[in-house]
Amino acid sequence: MTTIEYAPAxxxxxxxxxxxxxxxxxxxxxxxxxxxxxxxxxxxxGQLLLGSEQPIATRLGFVYYGGLSSDQETSTPDNQISxxxxxxxxxxxxxxxKAKTTVRTVDAATDWINDQFHTVETVVDTYxxxxxxxxxxxxxxxxxxxxxxxxxxxxxxxxxxxxxxxADVPYVSEENATAVQTALADVEASDGGNLTARERELxxxxxxxxxxxxxxxxxxxxxxxxxxxxxxxxxxxxxxxxDR
Length: 244
What we know:
Layout: E1 3-6, H1 11-14, E2 22-27, H2 40-50, E3 59-64, E4 80-86, E5 91-95, E6 100-103, H3 106-134, H4 142-152, H5 155-160, H6 163-167, H7 174-184, H8 197-202, E7 209-212, E8 216-218, E9 220-224, E10 232-234
Parallel strand pairs: 1-9, 2-7
Antiparallel strand pairs: 2-3, 3-4, 4-5, 5-6, 7-8, 9-10
């Protein structure tokens, strides 16, 4: 099972009470998981990538898993809040789809993260609806769809905008804008009942995970730097990666 050591300064943020449909996890440094692999060649590659120093993860990811997919082509974009702790400056570097900042205290980081949860959810939920209807609109590609969502953020704002205003978004024509508004007129708010198998399983996660940037959520053990025992452990999920 994968074991990841992380910076203790991240600990208070791992204990944030995340909203429903969110999860939090430590993001390993590049090659960090390989140093714990079963295969010798992978361990050697991890050591080559990391050098002689013991790898310590310094980044967290808060992930809204609505629309989360293992397929990079269909996975929902911009569904994360990222936190990186810079030990040299003792600062937290924070970013989401809509904002970016640096703060010095964990309390300030916590407040900023809590403010971003609703913003990210709103934009992702809008993207899921718009991308579904956009699949049937000829000539409206992913770039145009994302432009609409990033510009207007909510279904209501897209519905209420003038067609000419929608068409100001790059890669969106007046014809496509009209088709989007026509399709949205029949869209009801989602009740969250149509969860994927992945989303249903993630609902049962009650502790931080390991968030591999390429593989997604991974079961394993999380150990604060300097501790002798894991503080968090998550396993038993059918599609979460375990040992390499």
